[in-house]
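Dear colleagues,

As part of the handover before I leave the project, I'm documenting each prediction I ran so the next person doesn't have to rerun anything. This entry is a single chain, and its sequence is reproduced below.
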Amino acid sequence: MTATSAAMEVDAEARRILERAAAASFPPLHAVHHLLSVGVCVRCIFRMFGAFSQACSCTSLTVSVLHSFLEERDDSVKSESCSCLSTDEACCSVCFGILLPTCHQDDGVASVDDTSRIDIITSMVSQAVQGESYQIDQFSLEISLPAVVAANDRSIRLYMKQKYGKENWFKGEIFSQQTMSVKEALRLLIVPSLEKQLDVKHGNNSFRIRLTYTHDDASLKLNSLLPNDRNRKRKTESREGNDTRRNSTYDDKQILSETDSFIHRTLEGIQDQEFCSLFQLPPEKVFKPCHLVISCLRSPIYIGGRYLKLSRNVSQSCWIIDDERMGEASVEEIIGENVRAICRGDGCKFHAAGREDIDVRMLGSGRPFLIEILNV
């Protein structure tokens, strides 16, 4: 098959999807066009109106294709300079460009043509896996989105309800809260390409690929709009057990996750009337895409044994008082760091069945211990 015939087949697939959607669950064409004009991307339009999953996973469904389809069927959509075709708004005002992947990374902004954007993202994931020399036979995909995506999604839904709620075509089931989420749509887009890139299947597995999207500006603005009496202080106390890590990346992710979870719960507790008074309807257009961080994680592995401590100057765990180390070393460091280095883990936790004072030896059959190796 030549490149031209392949492109024609892809375009034909997009046309078939649009025909099916127009005959099934889509609202009047002018409403679809209005969503495009306020900055909602093609895939968000499809998922919000409950269109079938093939529509969200078709890479050839772009703004220009949908606009051309609308132009053929709606006399009011004729201008080549239509606002929904403007190249200034590169990001969707709901998903922030996540479903039409354009994302900020440490080396700048990655933005390519629509048909290859998904492959570019999955290539970056594949490089991250290969760069760490992971050996995998399956993977699971985890996706973390900023809470502002959920807020803008709700904002668009309420805006459409205000604008078209009294029209006959607008029904609860056509604009249900139970329609496909951004996470579900992104999974449909990425998983097939990722399976091809990695040459393994997606499924429940100990190897996890995590895509973490953040948008600092929008998140800060969202925080400022939330009622002040809902704010809280995050607990920063360390968890039980000793934790040896090479950097603070894991802790930063935990704090980010806890913050977003709290904002999600806060948004869920706000009634529609209060939400409309706090947030702009529809949400403002977005000019800056999300920042994407790709991380790979394995489930921990555990190694058990018994240790003997023959020295009276070695503590069980690292013991520091007023920035001064007590003792010459610790069992935790001697065993844990050596095991971690051999297993090539990101960190380790040392668990022992009881403990002894620094000046007490551990003889006999030794004390049982367990080493938890993180992200091997």
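Residues 103-115, 229-255 have pLDDT under 50 and may be disordered. The radius of gyration is 26 Å.

All the best with the project,
I.
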